[in-house]
Amino acid sequence: MEYRQLGNSGLRVPVLSFGTATFGGTNDFFKAWGNTQVDEATRLVNLCLDAGVSLFDTANGYSNGTSEEILGKALTGLRDKVLISTKATFPLGDGINDYGSSRINLINACEASLKRLGTDHIDIYHMHGFDANTPIEETLKALETLVQSGKVRYIACSNFSGWHLMKSLSISERYGWSKYIAHQAYYSLLDRDFEWELMPLGIEEKVGTIVWSPLSSGKLTGKYRRGQSYPSDARVAQGGNPVIGTSVDDERLYNIVDVLDELAEETGKTISQISLNWLLQRPTVANIIIGARNEEQLKQNLEAVGWNLTTDQVKRLDAASDIRPVYPYWHQRQFPMLNTAPDLYK
User: Fold this and answer.
1) What residues does each domain of the chain span?
2) Which end of the chain has less Cβ packing within 10 Å, N or C?
3) Where are the beta strands (DSSP E) in 98-166?
4) Which of 3, 62, 187, 329 is catalytic?
């Protein structure tokens, strides 16, 4: 397993991590992802460790905390061998202060996550989303308190806009507080909006990228094909699609899958493995979160590493998945010599 430095920190992480949103399945949304319980979760954890995957990602909002509880039990006796990433911010209760990135919620949420996970510290603690109603200084000071207490090792964010992240980094620098070392973001061959603002920011400020939904909710697995109905057993059809705000251009999807089919024949790898491998060759990407409903899915995803697409193969996928960005990014693309990552726009 390859390890990479996570952003501007000394923490090294495997290029693949295991996402546990499939653990629990206590509501309709997450049930569509999976309903893995402790015994199967333990088997999946051991498969990951055997393959060198030692980072496990969860969130307090996954099945209302059940995912954290199951992960904690599956990691019994293994805490010194693993890294745990979890998140807070989204609603987890009916109380007026049971959501957001306020000091009161973050301190309470962290304590609750520690208890569910059965551990005394969290290795990477993410703000699951940006809270525009809480002063950024309050959020970062609360996170600094958690770091100083030893309950959190590193802080990160997820689903931030460029200005959310940049202002947060600036405030942390001003006061000498811990900085976000990573941004957990949605990125895939099908949805490359991340490259317009967040990737250049990550390059400039040394913020590592942890990718969620790298297969675009299963649309890059080969199940979705031209002339065929969407599969009825897929997560999207069952109401478990986290990518609600994106519209899929079916023809563009099918054109990408056409190239993936060609490369699968050339490499002997699956469409999913090629899609994941493409991401691992993108700037700032330090880690990709892979999920699995069962052992077979996990084993297949683990085969996405240990080899690389050729430069030509990457360019073919780049061309098939390219999309015209919104302003001002389309204007900036006309001057690649002024951009942080000019090779992306050749």
Assistant:
1) 3-217+272-309
2) C
3) 122-127, 152-158
4) 62
In 149-240, which residue ranges form alpha helices assigned H by DSSP?
162-175, 198-205
Q: Mind listing the pLDDT tens digit for each residue in 44-96?
A: 999 999 999 999 999 999 999 999 999 999 999 999 999 999 999 999 888 89
Collapsing DSSP to helix, strand or coil, 322 comes out as: coil
CATH 3.20.20.100 fits 3-217+272-309, yes or no: yes
- 187 part of the active site: no
Tokens of 106: 């973050």
Percent of the chain with pLDDT over 90: 81
Model pLDDT for residues 108-148, shown as the tens digit of each residue: 999 999 999 999 999 999 999 999 999 999 999 999 999 99
Q: Do residues 92 and 22 lie in contact, with contact meaning Cβ atoms separated by under 8 Å?
A: no
Spatial contact of 116 and 65, defined as CB atoms under 8 Å apart: yes
What does the alpha-carbon distance between residue 313 and residue 318 come to, in Å, rounded to a whole number? 9
Residues 6 or more apart in contact with residue 335 via CB below 8 angstroms:
none
pLDDT digits (tens, 9 = 90+) for 214-242: 999 999 999 998 878 777 665 554 455 55
Label the pairing between strands 152-158 and 83-88.
Answer: unpaired
